[in-house]
Write the structure tokens for this entry.
Amino acid sequence: MSVSVHSAAFVDPRARLGAGVEVGPGAVIGPEVEVGEGTRVDSHALVTGRTRVGRHCHIHHCAVVGAAPQDLKYRGERTYVEVGDHTVLREFTTVHLATVPEGTTRVGSHCLVMAYAHVAHDCVVGDHCILANAVNLAGFVTVEEYAIVGGMTPVHQFVRIGAHSIIGGGSRVPQDVAPYVKAAGNPLANYGLNSVGLERRGFPAEVRATLKHAYHILFREGLPVEQAVARIRQECAGCAEAERLARFAETSVRGLTR
């Protein structure tokens, strides 16, 4: 398949475009950009910086990928952006370069980043994540795989959002959100397991039951994290998902949303 570049687009001759890439009118692709096969870059999008976009992605109208971070300490150090395969960045989304030298801001594969969402410097977004409209991730945020963040939600620097969790729209996220949970509100609070999401993704009933017990230990019994983690490991031994929850809790730096 040949590359299709609109006559009103600008693609630097040093950029590397894979087979079947489409570039719309007014789009700009910089010299250190690599775009994987079958990816579409719509009108007036900007893909710049040291950026690699995977295969079969769709970068919509006026999205900006690979621009300099909004960090006053950044002095043009060599940093990167990576976007996985089959990921969609909707209109006016922004994904910025990292600030740590040789560091990378990452958005995984099979993600949907909705209109006006912002992925700041040094963030890591895992595979199969959804960031709804106008989600704002501050620097160094980690969003693990299959997490969903509802619209108009700001996430504080260095916060971790655990795998398979879901955060309701209009929330404010100042602390870590554990894997597998539902959270919402301002102040943010947990509302049990993301049971529907877990069932849809094929988690067996016995795993969901064990996670429910682990959740109760961690969030409903009023124990210090260290004691809760020890009990989870004792009472939910052999369940990899419960161990992941325990490990997430004991490694939290900003503290857990409860």
User: Anything to note?
Assistant: The mean pLDDT is 98. The two ends are 52 Å apart (CA to CA). The CA atoms of residues 193 and 215 lie 7 Å apart.
